[in-house]
Amino acid sequence: MVELTRHDLAVRMADLARAVAMPRTVDQILSGVTAAATELIPGADTAGVLLIGAGGTFDSVAGTSDLPHELDQLQMTFQEGPCMQAALAETVVRTDDFREETRWPSYSKAAADIGVLSGLSFKLYTADRTAGALNLFGFQPGAWDGEAETIGTVLAAHAAAALLAGKHTEQLTSALTTRDRIGQAKGIIMERYQVDDVQAFEMLRRLSQDSNTKLVDVAQQVIDTRG
Question: pTM of the entire structure?
Answer without folding.
Answer: 0.67
